[in-house]
Write a structure and sequence with these properties.
By secondary structure, the protein is an alpha+beta fold. It is 50% helix and 22% strand. It has a three-stranded antiparallel sheet. One of its GO terms (cellular component) is endosome.
C-alpha cells in the first residue's frame, strides 16, 4: 500500500499510525522499522514498481527537425515544409529500435490536437 501510493512522509506517518491502532495490526517498533526502510529506499522501490509494470518499450530519446521537400511524386509538394521526428524506443539493457516519422503541416496540427486532448485527460485525473 505504501509503495503503490508512493506515500510522502506525512502520509506514511498517518498510515502507520492507523496500522498500529488496528486490531491485529503492527507494533510501534514495526512501524518505526517500516518508516525507516521507506525513507531510505523510497526512490528505489518506486522505480522498481514502475519497471515491473511496464510490458512494452519506452521512449528513450526523441529528436525532431523541419526540412523542405526537395523531391516528390507531385510537383506541388516540392519545397513544402515537413517535420521529421526520430524516436528511440527500447528497454533498459536491451538494444534500441528507431522509428522515423514524417509529418506535413496538417498532420502536425492533428498531432498537436491529440496531444492537447491527452494533456486535458491527464489533468482531469
Amino acid at each position: 500500500t505504501i509503495a503503490s501510493a508512493d506515500m510522502d512522509l506525512n502520509q506514511l506517518e498517518a498510515f502507520l499510525t492507523a496500522q498500529t491502532k488496528k486490531q491485529g495490526g503492527i507494533t510501534s517498533d514495526q512501524a518505526a522499522v517500516i518508516a525507516k526502510f521507506w525513507k531510505n529506499h523510497r526512490i528505489k522501490i518506486h522505480e522498481s514498481l514502475i519497471n515491473q509494470s511496464r510490458w512494452d518499450n519506452v521512449l528513450k530519446n526523441m529528436n525532431w527537425r523541419v526540412d523542405l521537400k526537395s523531391q516528390s511524386r507531385h510537383i506541388d509538394q516540392i519545397n513544402t515544409p515537413v517535420a521529421i521526428v526520430e524516436m528511440e524506443l527500447g528497454k533498459n539493457g536491451q538494444e534500441s529500435e528507431f522509428l522515423c516519422l514524417e509529418f506535413d503541416e496538417a498532420k502536425v496540427n492533428q498531432m498537436l490536437k491529440k496531444l492537447s486532448e491527452i494533456e486535458e485527460s491527464i489533468t482531469l485525473l
